[in-house]
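To fix ideas, we quote verbatim a fold written out as tokens:
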Amino acid sequence: MKVILLQDVKGAGKKGELVSVSDGYARNFLLPRKLAREADAQAMNELKNAEQSRQHKIEVDTAQAKENKAKLEGRTLVMTAKAGQGGRLFGSVTNKEVAAAVQREFGITVDKRKVVLEGDIKAFGTYSCEIKLYTGISAQVKIMVKEQEQ
């Protein structure tokens, strides 16, 4: 019997897959526990529409990420920070601050976990940074840390 899985089932498949299982397994285990539904015409049509919707969302997200990469690639973010003697910062410039600066300057919302710094930024100067926008799409940005004016 062909069924569409509504949840991940160990040994059978992942959620949303069309799988062929024995009639007894389907009728006695999968269907009563709402782990699957029978693959009739309506269910197959819904599965096809859901797959097309998922594919369209991936295409839209990829296009948006490429557009954001074009805006960000090679740009320099200027950030200010307080420092003590010798140019050492009080604390450091964090991923969260870089993400906020990208939002402020370019209007692009970036998750702080997607900002990859080469190391801790604890002194003035220019640093390289990678911002992951989507799977396989990332932009290289320079971060210039300057002294905050009193």
User: Anything to note?
Assistant: The chain is about 35% helix and 35% strand. The chain has a mean pLDDT of 91. The chain has two domains: 2-66, 68-147.
